[in-house]
Amino acid sequence: MKTLTLALLAAFTLASAHAEVVRPAPNFTWGTGRTLKSWQGQPVVLLIAPSPRSSAFRKQAGRIQAAYQELAARNVVFVAAFTDPEAAAEKIPSNVPFVLANNGAQIAANYGLEGDFALAVIGRDGNLDLNSPKVIPTSRIMDMVINNAEQQAAERKP
Predict the structure, then answer these.
(1) b/e per residue, 102-135, with b = 16+ CB within 10 A?
(2) What is the average pLDDT across 118-139?
(3) Average pLDDT of 42-47?
(4) Is residue 9 predicted with pLDDT exceeding 80?
(5) Quick one: three-class SS letters along 2-55?
């Protein structure tokens, strides 16, 4: 037991030493020239898909909608980036207020999209905390949002 405790302590110390490593999220624009940096201080959930009709987008949007109140209480901003240029004119079938990013194909390339779907969670500090090619549970999104903010606060304490 003592060996396990020492191993966990060593792993925590090593992880804390690397906590300052920043992996900045690739920038993108929305609306009339506003950028990702304008949301610094707020977590951002970015969904990348061909269109709002894609099954992965609909599935992830549905999961987010089920947990929307809890995520919104943490000031999460939801962004959709569509790789099909004609999809920008389509209505997103969700009650979640998604902001539509400009140039979805470029965003997909910047975030390393290799298939038809990606989800990114960008922390309050602009770090790319999660970049997944799969639909994920909203509990995992919430964990990323909460843990990033708590870790940042802990790092600031003397």
Answers:
(1) bbbeebbebbebeebbbbbbbbbbbbbbbbebeb
(2) 94
(3) 96
(4) no
(5) HHHHHHHHHHHHHHHHCCCCCCECCCCEECCCEEHHHHCCCCEEEEEECCCCCH
